[in-house]
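Task: sequence design from structure.
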């Protein structure tokens, strides 16, 4: 199995193979209507689009010092987080998809007896989207400042009510987020780059 394919997801090659196998079955059975529908779908929609990472390995690096490798990784993440990336064209997808990944990080310094000398934590939110057109996306976070203002853009969607509110501190955003909108309304609104796995925001948190 391809290592970058999520559980339950088939690769693009498998989808194409399945489509071609179906086409061959139509042809062998003399199912003219099936062949015609296959050709029509292929003409209108093109080959199946797979919502999975497409990667190209450019180079490999290594070091005998583990701390150097960790620092290099941090530097790359910081550079990517602050790199401007904007949506510059409208695309159309047969199936739209959005993924949000929350990563909790906790760093703890302990003494020889196991006592905690210092600890610091932060939350990082990563976004990946396959969306048609040039959409503005709004992300809801259980920010204590927004308590009592749980609203959604459509009347047929019931807001998710939560009792777990947090205080966001030292908030940082990706360049695609409208920071002036956040400062004014505490709403996280952004126009995401297409098919890019980006770190959308990071913040420190403490209980209310």
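Answer:
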């Amino acid at each position: 199995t391809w290592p970058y394919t999520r559980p339950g997801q088939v690769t693009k090659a498998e989808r194409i193979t399945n489509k071609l196998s179906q086409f061959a079955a139509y042809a062998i059975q003399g199912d003219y209507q099936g062949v015609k529908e296959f050709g029509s779908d292929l003409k209108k929609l093109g080959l199946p689009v797979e919502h999975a990472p497409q990667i190209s390995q450019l180079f490999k690096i290594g070091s005998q010092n583990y701390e150097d490798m960790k620092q290099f990784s941090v530097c790359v993440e910081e550079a990517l987080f602050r790199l401007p990336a904007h949506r510059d064209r409208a695309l159309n997808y047969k199936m739209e998809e959005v993924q949000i990944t929350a990563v909790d990080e906790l760093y703890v310094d302990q003494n020889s007896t196991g006592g905690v000398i210092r600890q610091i934590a932060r939350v990082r939110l990563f976004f990946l989207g396959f969306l048609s057109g040039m959409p503005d996306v709004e992300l809801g976070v259980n920010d204590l400042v927004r308590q009592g203002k749980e609203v959604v853009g459509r009347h047929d969607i019931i807001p998710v009510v939560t009792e777990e509110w947090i205080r966001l501190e030292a908030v940082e955003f990706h360049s695609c987020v409208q920071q002036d909108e956040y400062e004014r309304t505490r709403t996280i609104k952004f126009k995401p780059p297409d098919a890019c796995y980006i770190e959308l925001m990071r913040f420190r948190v403490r209980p209310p």
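The beta strands are 97-110, 116-130, 137-139, 167-173, 188-190, 198-206.
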